[in-house]
Amino acid sequence: MSAIDIDWDRDGRQAGYLHLPNSTNVSAWQDLRVPVYLFRNGEGPCTLLLGGNHGDEYEGITGLSALAHSLDPAGITGSVIIVPALNLPAVLAGARLSPVDGRNLNREFPGDPRGSLTQRLAALVVSELVPRADAVYDIHSGGRSLLFAPCTLVHEQADGELTRRCLAAADSFGAPFTVVIREPHAGQMLDDVVERSGRLMVSSELGGSAAISPGTMGLTRDGLLRLLAHLGHLSAADLPPAAPGRRLVVPGPQAYLHADDLGTYEPMVEIGRSVAEGTVIGRLHFVDRADRAPQPLRAPLGGILLCVHGQGLVRRDDVIAVIAVPYGE
Amino acid sequence: MSAIDIDWDRDGRQAGYLHLPNSTNVSAWQDLRVPVYLFRNGEGPCTLLLGGNHGDEYEGITGLSALAHSLDPAGITGSVIIVPALNLPAVLAGARLSPVDGRNLNREFPGDPRGSLTQRLAALVVSELVPRADAVYDIHSGGRSLLFAPCTLVHEQADGELTRRCLAAADSFGAPFTVVIREPHAGQMLDDVVERSGRLMVSSELGGSAAISPGTMGLTRDGLLRLLAHLGHLSAADLPPAAPGRRLVVPGPQAYLHADDLGTYEPMVEIGRSVAEGTVIGRLHFVDRADRAPQPLRAPLGGILLCVHGQGLVRRDDVIAVIAVPYGE
Amino acid sequence: MSAIDIDWDRDGRQAGYLHLPNSTNVSAWQDLRVPVYLFRNGEGPCTLLLGGNHGDEYEGITGLSALAHSLDPAGITGSVIIVPALNLPAVLAGARLSPVDGRNLNREFPGDPRGSLTQRLAALVVSELVPRADAVYDIHSGGRSLLFAPCTLVHEQADGELTRRCLAAADSFGAPFTVVIREPHAGQMLDDVVERSGRLMVSSELGGSAAISPGTMGLTRDGLLRLLAHLGHLSAADLPPAAPGRRLVVPGPQAYLHADDLGTYEPMVEIGRSVAEGTVIGRLHFVDRADRAPQPLRAPLGGILLCVHGQGLVRRDDVIAVIAVPYGE
Amino acid sequence: MSAIDIDWDRDGRQAGYLHLPNSTNVSAWQDLRVPVYLFRNGEGPCTLLLGGNHGDEYEGITGLSALAHSLDPAGITGSVIIVPALNLPAVLAGARLSPVDGRNLNREFPGDPRGSLTQRLAALVVSELVPRADAVYDIHSGGRSLLFAPCTLVHEQADGELTRRCLAAADSFGAPFTVVIREPHAGQMLDDVVERSGRLMVSSELGGSAAISPGTMGLTRDGLLRLLAHLGHLSAADLPPAAPGRRLVVPGPQAYLHADDLGTYEPMVEIGRSVAEGTVIGRLHFVDRADRAPQPLRAPLGGILLCVHGQGLVRRDDVIAVIAVPYGE
Amino acid sequence: MSAIDIDWDRDGRQAGYLHLPNSTNVSAWQDLRVPVYLFRNGEGPCTLLLGGNHGDEYEGITGLSALAHSLDPAGITGSVIIVPALNLPAVLAGARLSPVDGRNLNREFPGDPRGSLTQRLAALVVSELVPRADAVYDIHSGGRSLLFAPCTLVHEQADGELTRRCLAAADSFGAPFTVVIREPHAGQMLDDVVERSGRLMVSSELGGSAAISPGTMGLTRDGLLRLLAHLGHLSAADLPPAAPGRRLVVPGPQAYLHADDLGTYEPMVEIGRSVAEGTVIGRLHFVDRADRAPQPLRAPLGGILLCVHGQGLVRRDDVIAVIAVPYGE
Amino acid sequence: MSAIDIDWDRDGRQAGYLHLPNSTNVSAWQDLRVPVYLFRNGEGPCTLLLGGNHGDEYEGITGLSALAHSLDPAGITGSVIIVPALNLPAVLAGARLSPVDGRNLNREFPGDPRGSLTQRLAALVVSELVPRADAVYDIHSGGRSLLFAPCTLVHEQADGELTRRCLAAADSFGAPFTVVIREPHAGQMLDDVVERSGRLMVSSELGGSAAISPGTMGLTRDGLLRLLAHLGHLSAADLPPAAPGRRLVVPGPQAYLHADDLGTYEPMVEIGRSVAEGTVIGRLHFVDRADRAPQPLRAPLGGILLCVHGQGLVRRDDVIAVIAVPYGE
Q1: Which residues pair with D248 in a beta bridge?
Q2: Share of chain F above pLDDT 70, in %
Q3: pLDDT band at residue E187, thresholds of 50, 70 and 90?
Q4: Which chain C residue has its CA at the smallest distance from D254's CA?
């Protein structure tokens, strides 16, 4: 049980596992195995593609599995590492967090090799996968509780040139939007580890509601090829074309609308559309109260309705909407 | 605590509650209150509109709450009874089944007045609400695990004239499809109670994935007005128009495709589209196995792809797809 | 494993068990044993004393255990049967409902000998214990979610003479109040089984909050002796005296105040005190909302504040207060 | 989805499913499929072999799966129906009871076609499988909490000839012991349904502790062939021989030793050995108490130590031992 | 989402929130909001008042909410910061520990800004609230499992003058007792952080059993005003008077009586009363055992019965009683 | 509540407790007490004997309890410290991991005095028990999910002489096998702490399946006396003799066979037997699939079948078998 049964120097396609020893009440010496694929064709750039950081975000999981079963190693340059279902226990549970220790993988970086399963998984990614890569693409999709207009995400970094390169890579994917964002917990995310090491980092939010559609699946399939071409692994000829997307930025806490009460959400505006500040984008219905009228929900800013709540039921403190505004225009 | 604090003979709008006594570890003498609305304007037909039979199907819940806060009692004829969130504990939990007793309300009819909470709720509907109504519309939407092309549903009944009237009412809603179906558990559903009493019964599946979109919300809002007009409560003038829908039938068990393994679902065909028998409508990805290729999923029949799995994760025995074929053509 | 290992015809003190076969994941052939005591001294009246019908009501459980370890069989007339912890799994869990099947024993009468554990326990009481008794006293104490001014309870019955005898027995206990009440679920309670058989039935609510105090413990200890004397088992000489109590009635649903929201409860009036209709008896604090002022809670009727919520936290639909008014004055 | 996709009149080997519609929070229209096999070679006797009635008893589950993948239909006479994992949800959970509804299948007979999943499963067995069979063999193995000396079981019935035939069939299996027993809950077991219909019924307890050994696996494999020969399906030639077993009876409640406290169990006598009344067969250790010495556990009767607790941890009311005595000698 | 939306330099009353980002399976980007109030009137002392450190201790939660809705900012000197429900998830669950991560807030100080929710909450208190305050009053009330004679608490510290000032502040509240105590886990409590910074720290135990009474509510309301006057925020005129309390000390581990077995608790002495060493203060009843007599429970020391078990059910290792003795007399 | 109420310098037998303060929703100030025994007779070697490191491994728990109630302090030399049920909450739950915090004690060393209960327990062992001992024997038994041929275990260490002494001590126990092993998580185990301090460390795996047999119980009882004699506490005369065991080594990850799917396990080879590489040692049965044949399971190496899965149900990633090969021959 070496940690990863891949020979990193061998050309061709390999299918192996990350091995994580785990001990539970029903399996004392469990060997938790997370599939990993290497496609290699000589020297060249190395890109790490990750899905399933959160277990209920399916475009990355399914899109990378499809890629891992269709990519021709002879047709690429350099190395492409694919982990379709990184937080495998969460993926198998259909949940954001790991059912093993209740932790959110993307709040545990850089991890702890002596910690709980999720913490050890984070540490393994940091010690064994990230150092092999020039670029990392971590595919997210909102998960059960959020629904996004398909977009790639980048962080603005101190190094302007690195930011510029990340933006270009994000644009290459061909999603309708490329979004600049800075989460309050950025310091505990994979992105931070990659960025601080000077590597190229791209993320995304390609859908949500814990579902997946033919449209977002198709975007993921084509976008992955476009990104691999941009990063030098594939020839740009014969690639599926993409309409030019828009660059947006989530300007700060004022762009978020949170719920004040439990209720069901009546959506009135499609994601991806423009709204003016104060536009009624939906209503909250207090279905346990015969005496309360629905509450109008207003856009906190003018801009693009980037994200809405991903479920019909909303609880206090949940995100109802996120607005993004034009970036660098 | 009379069972329902509505005066059924009073004109105008009333907002009250179904009262269900309940006893839990944290509330010995709980008075569970389910909102109910009566809109009445003199003698005339009486229609019962129900949402939240399953707690994670939002078009009915939210659409009926919106109607209950917008309908003008002076503008209608007869009585309209609205219960937006019938299985309220399930609705507040965002779940199909009641968290109180784990039961599926729509498998408990005609209910039991001495049984568990869900059984007593079913009995209350049967004894206190159904007898007041000439027609019942029970709005469903797939729930978390299913996603439907928006449709109204009717059962084919021994009484051909009643079937014809149900079909006409279902058509009036204006969904893209009107579907004839017979579930294996029909004898335990509300539909059966209503139909056996000779009343008009319509159901629906307006969406799914435990989410709701501006499109299905708009269809629900407009369709409810069209149905109320069809049933004689509203004037047909000034109603939102609907394109004529198609009548389909789910011909039997051979129309269902179930999963044989746990995996993530790659959708390839949009719901509502025509497929030939054997068409690959998607693939199942075995994301815990580096050694298994994705499995193609084929349409078991030629027809319309009426329903697909509503989540990205599929487990053995889950429905992956349901095909419907033209009805009565 | 006969159902009860007591020889009903033998004089003296016996300590045995009700045996209930049960089968769980960790105990295939469990012999669940509920302690039962018989004190017998020749022919004479037979009284059945029950505690722990609900598992978190301690005056009955502890008071009857104390009696079972102090009563002298030579000093009594007839038979006294004592079951201090009837719903033993609930008692051992400190909960109202049975943790085995989630059921409320006092909503399961007359029980079902083929049903779940709680249903079989109810059936055993009805078939094996009630028929031996002339009178039944089932001691309740509010449980976690309610707090009562100490009182005995009786139901008003069709047979006025039986009602009169029940009231007299209830008065003999010496609680501050004797209360006439009719619960909405009376038909599923032990009381109903006993009353319909023409036996004398008394219940009580001696405290609550899942706690017990020296004062309510003392009342229980003395009251049991006074009741046994009243029923002919003990000589009235040397009994602890009791101040005469007041007879009250809970007149109907209008006497209950239920919560409309989750909050913490600020009590302003002691239980057992008189209040006028509309008196502010407390306030509800919405501690998750910086923008909501506390809500005054008003007495729905004038009368005695018989019962308040037993915990600091109140949830929607919980009982906040019950008012009782003078009975038969 | 007919209930069982087996053609009962077709010769050869068929592998199909019992179909049970089920509805959960994560699968609205689940088609629960329980494997069933038919081996048929013309007219002749029909035997029904069942494993997994309790989900953690493995000799039946695994032994019948092995038989279903090795039996040659051309080599038999009549029909053999095999259901290796009857209570499939319990089997997949490694638990005695169904995780779906918490019910014990073998306390739910004759079942309820409108009830919960386990109740519907029982009803399906009674309506669709039992009527096809002349003999039923339901293989049990103690489960997690019990450990048996390998034995077949029969009930003594009013019809002495039927009892004699059941005993002969049980003997033919070749276990060390054939045991006559009458459980207190016999009226809710499958055995009762079969026996009351005049069919031949045999059960067993072939091991326990939720484990399985090469020895009990081998006994099961060979015993099944011997039983099939006895019932007329196979020729007796070339069968694995068995030593003659002993007939025992569990005489009644006095044969059971139950625990009075939680502790760990120190076994001192091997199962299957003879003990005198009062023999210390083990001790209970109170490992949370530094002040309590181990408690000796004594055989309640003289006889064979048929069964002991199957786990190292014992809780109050658990079975510690069962003694059987010679039958009919 | 700055961490706290209060302008600390603005006079008047402000009602805002502590913002804690949280991520769960049902809310990816939850903005957990804990109400906080600032009352400011110019320069002057700053006092921090905290309730809900444990979620089931109601005098602080409800008393501080009442104060936050009644205090007149124009009538005070300096600043008063009020957080009525600090561990809000625990308060909303009615539980001692946070349901989010299972942690006890008062064992997590000084907290961890990268840790789980409770650890981040502790860190936020330490970094953002404590540094603004000259004095901190953290109001406790025993919680579900303990019941205290109302008292304020202080720790004896190396700095005698600081101890003296803490005692004087504690006395000013006007509870019947001021108690000096040193818990074994003191190093992980808020008290330690405050004390080590040289600030004035007072705590309390004002009741318990997860309930609240008019009496303890009144003491809390009046005591808070007396404390604010003592600390220089209010004029002492017109304050509700308090009888002088007694100073006690819990001398060490020998003052605690723990349970050796599960049972129900029969209380015999009221809290706050004097007992001699060896006095029987109650009995433990073993209600699952017909063969065990109740166990007398004796005071381990002579002194005041400061605290008893707060529920009727006691488990092994629970506190049954705590004795306090006169301090510094 | 000093941490351990044992006087380490007093001769004779003492029975006391490790005290661990704990705080839960139902016990705010719990004093968790873990029994510990000291047998001392003057100066001499000190040996620490531990059971219940994992809560479902019974030979150590029960064998050490038996020893603690039979050893004569006057008959020994030096000191023997016995903790039969170290992880007491896990032992009382019959589980490998602590139910309090879900942690595996033997992955938490050297512990954390400010951490969760299991972490504090580990720290207490390291600070208070290990330093008193010259040798530590930590008795394991596979637990629910594994079943071992009885063996003692040692780690190969940098210090060859210490390794030699550990092997000799392990041999003295008299199990059929002495096994050298290096777990992947060794750095978090108690063994590592003891070895790094230069003390003698022996462990074992004496059985499994969460059960215990007369045979493994007898080996434990006798082996403990042989080990105490070897370590100088007892005279070797009159000891129960043991056959010489074999020394084996688990050579590395290639010695483990893990499951690729859920199924039931058909064992074909007894533990402790020799197998050739590729031998079919069992089969996996896919009992939910009528279409899948059983999968043969082959020995990954030639050697002794040291360990097999301890339950009839196997899940993906579980250990099915471990092979050991001769050591140092």
Answers
A1: D179, D326
A2: 99
A3: confident
A4: C1
CATH label, A253-326, candidates 3.40.30.10, 2.40.50.100, 2.40.10.120, 1.10.1040.10: 2.40.50.100
Residues from chain E that touch C91, judged by Cβ atoms under 8 A, are 264, 287-288, 313
pTM beyond 0.90, yes or no: yes
Q: What is the 3-state secondary structure (H, E, C) of chain E?
A: CCCECCCCCCCEEEEEEEEEEEEECCEEEEEEEEEEEEEEECCCCEEEEECCCCCCCHHHHHHHHHHHCCCCHHHCCEEEEEECCCCHHHHHHCCCCCCCCCCCHHHCCCCCCCCCHHHHHHHHHHHHHHHHCCEEEEEECCCCCEEECCEEEECCCCCHHHHHHHHHHHHHHCCCEEEECCCCCHHHCHHHHHHHCCCEEEEEECCECCCCCHHHHHHHHHHHHHHHHHCCCCCCCCCCCCCCCEEEECCCHHHEEECCCCEEEEECCCCCCEECCCCEEEEEECCCCCCCCCEEEECCCCEEEEEEECCCEECCCCEEEEEEEECCC
Taking the CA of residue D284 and the nearest CA in chain F, the distance in Å comes to 9
Which positions in chain B touch F289 (Cβ < 8 Å)? 260
> What is the 8-class DSSP label of residue B3?
S
* Mutant choice from F287, F288, F315 vs B, greatest count of B C-beta within 10 A: F288
Does the ipTM exceed 0.90?
A: yes
User: pLDDT, tens digit, for every residue of E156-176?
Assistant: 888 889 999 999 999 999 999
What is the spatial distance between Cα B160 and Cα B173, in angstroms, rounded to a whole number? 21
Residue of C nearest to D256 (CA): C1
Residue D226: partners with Cβ closer than 8 Å, 6 or more residues away: D172, D173, D174, D239, D240, D242
Contact B84 A267 (CB under 8 A): no
Question: Residues F137-170: pLDDT tens digits?
Answer: 999 999 999 999 999 999 988 888 999 999 999 9
Q: Read off the pLDDT of residues A192-203 as tens digits, 9 standing for 90 and up.
A: 999 999 999 999
How many other CB atoms sit within 10 Å of the CB of residue E4? 18
pLDDT tens-digit map of D229-239: 999 999 977 88
d(Cα F196, Cα F191) in Å, to the nearest integer? 8
Residue C189: pLDDT over 90 = yes
Q: What is the CATH number of domain C12-249?
A: 3.40.630.10
Does residue F237 carry a pLDDT above 90?
no
In the complex, which subunits touch C with 3 or more CB pairs below 8 angstroms? A, B, D, E
- Are the beta carbons of B97 and D24 separated by less than 8 Å? yes
Task: Give start-end residues of each CATH 2.40.50.100 domain in chain E.
Answer: 253-326
Q: Whose structure tokens read 């694929």? A: A37
**Residues paired with residue A303 on neighbouring β-strands, in sequence order:** A275
Nearest CA in chain F to B290: F260
F270 Cβ contact list (under 8 Å, min separation 6): D213, D214, F305
Mutation target to probe the E interface, by most E beta carbons within 10 A, among C212, C216, C221, C273 is: C212
pLDDT surpasses 90 at D197: yes
- Which of E288, E317, E318 should we substitute to test contact with D (largest number of D Cβ atoms within 10 Å)? E288
- Residues C52-61: what's their mean pLDDT? 98
- Please list the residue range(s) of chain F that carry CATH number 3.40.630.10: 12-249
Q: Residue C231 carries which side chain, given as an amino acid letter? A: L
F256 to chain D nearest CA, in Å?
Answer: 20
Residue A223, pLDDT above cutoff 70: yes
C-alpha B304/C-alpha C318 separation (Å) is 49
Strand order in the sheet with E280-285: E295-298, E280-285, E263-267, E313-314
B25, B30, B114 member nearest C317 (Cβ): B30
Say what the pLDDT of residue A329 is: 60
